[in-house]
Amino acid sequence: MTSDPPFRFALTLDVGGSHITAAVVDLTSRALLPATLTRRSIDEQANREAIISGLAHAALDAARVEPYAVIAGIGMAMPAPFDYVAGVSLMQHKFHALYERNILHDLQEAWVGTPLAGMPVRIANDADLFALGEWWAGAARGCSSVIGLTLGTGMGSGFIRDGRIVTEGDGVPAQGELWSLPYLNGLAEEYANGQAVTRAYHVRTGATLTPKEISERAAYDDAARDAFTELGEHLMHILLPVVKCFAPDCLVVGGNVARSWALFGHLLQGGLNPVRCVQSMNFEEAALLGAAILSTESSAS
């Protein structure tokens, strides 16, 4: 992957379950332009026209701040399942109206008559782009191989080698997805997300709190510390065989649960050493940064 893209800016979008985020990224400084950051609410049950319109207008709103002529292309982070090469949504659990639709075609239609008409668009998995963003402009910058992990209501993962997204090969689970690996009496995700922290604390106290609330109690509440310790130990055991095969230089952990890194990060570092285990530097912005470098050339393999 080239380190100095030929154009100065990239236009990026990140599609979540309830919102669309768009921003222009400076490819030279490897940073979002704060003035361009746009966030639009989106109803995942909306019809196709409303969803595509929301995507198209979020991109136009963000791009309007910078001259279109210097934008290299458009990169977009989308959740799975999705045919990222063809640009076709395979999601049925959310955004059902987009099922089997070619999003690339729909967006190009929506941009007819605007400065974005005909501009190249590349789409990749949101967790993959989180990892790519941290490799390019974040906590894993300078590393040759990276595993990125996002912990929130679910568990996302991405694998990077030499600046490219990898979804197969030694140590890489199918499509780079760790969440569905068999673990104990279920799947890895059941033991390694925000709900797992909530559940662990409830078992100990009978109280049902969010991970953030539990984290805030950790200074004086043994049960809160124990809930995050349990998370860290499960994560370490889930990742150990993967790390041994993939041999990353760095593991970067993001998502809202990672904001409590001080409560479990040391367990990962101790159990996965010599791999450098770090908290995300960019959090929600990481996928946008990954989408920026994706927009300059194909990064998937």
From TrEMBL:
GO terms for molecular function: kinase activity. It comes from the Bacteria. InterPro entries: ATPase_NBD, ROK. This is Transcriptional regulator/sugar kinase. Keywords: Kinase, Plasmid, Transferase. It comes from Deinococcus peraridilitoris (strain DSM 19664 / LMG 22246 / CIP 109416 / KR-200).
